[in-house]
Amino acid sequence: MNPGLSTDPAVLVLEDGSRYPGRAYGARGTTLGEVVFATGMTGYQETLTDPSYAGQIVLQTAPHIGNTGMNTEDTESRRIWVSGYIVRDPSRVVSNWRAEESLDDALVADGVVGISGIDTRSVTRRIRSSGSMRGGIFSGDAVDIDPEEQLRIVQEAPEMSGRNLSAEVSVAAAEVTPARGERIGNLAVLDLGVKQATIENLADRGFDVHVLPQDVTIDDIRAIDPVAVFYSNGPGDPAASDDHVELLRAVLDDRLPFFGICFGNQLLGRALGFGTYKLPFGHRGINQPVMDRTTGRVEITAHNHGFAVDAPLDGATESPSGYGRVEVSHVGLNDQVVEGLRALDIPAFSVQYHPEAAAGPHDANYLFDRFRDMVLAARSGADQKDND
After folding, report:
1. Which residues make up the binding site for L-glutamine (predicted)?
2. Per residue in 28-46, is it b (16+ CB within 10 Å) or e — as a string?
3. All domains of the chain, ordered by start, with CATH?
4. 356 annotated active-site
5. pLDDT of 58-79, one tens digit each?
6. Which of the residues 210, 244, 283, 354 is marked catalytic?
7. Is 354 in the active site?
């Protein structure tokens, strides 16, 4: 298929009644979701196959998308997860020697309804002004549905707030990736939408990575005799994941070292007793500036989160849930949003972004080393206590 020359009509409808006629892209039909924008100039394959985007219609602010095609080596999970896809100018040709298929063909294969040829800048500005909102893409026979009926369909779609999507993206059974290099031990990874690059980075640090279904119990985790626990990224509202919060509190009570990213950061915040809230339009893309307060270094980081932790930015504060002192370790420089937490009295920390970003940037990749060092220090302390 030549996506750049598609003339089949399509329309994007936002819940505020805004309509954007364009051309069908990918599969034909109807799709609904929360419309969000991603600012990355590269890495669209990582975005599409990131389970964190489940339930969302993703708009790419970069105007030209699809020029490098798609390949199986760079995929971050077993499929494309976005509910829908919005681009301005899809590439007419695939121009990369590693490409195995076009982006349009990949969207069709996974049944992802998209739209092209619209003013993506205009949609982005509307979302920045009004906040992320529900939307629908209608193509094929659905494009002829009465506009008022299309709007009604969009307005009756579920909102992201209050949604628990973990079961939709998690593995059904445990999967193990062996450690590479000097082995440290078993790592329990709660799959809330984990990306393959995360698994590879953890295995490279010496962990036997046990990717576990999102509905495991603390006894299931203890059964693998883990040296640490990791909570992955994932979609949905952290306030709708109380079971995962209670599981994490059991992990913290066991004094198992913990590292969480993205959704895992929000769940650590809630486990420690802080609240979470929905951001107006979220952080998405690969160019978000964050300060690591431990080093004072500013990092360019990859994000995809629509919720954030509500914790005091300055100084250490007592965990409302009784886990000792906690500090905000990382902060977003665009809007002062909490981008990381560090517990000072137990071995636990988290960040709100992606240190494994496969298309880059790689500024935050050191966090996997920091996690490994924390686990080794915890083991050394435990061995010393046993000797005493």
Report:
1. 52, 234, 236, 263, 266, 304, 306-307
2. bbbbbbbbbbbbbeebbbb
3. 3-155 (3.50.30.20), 166-387 (3.40.50.880)
4. yes
5. 999 999 999 999 999 888 998 9
6. 354
7. yes
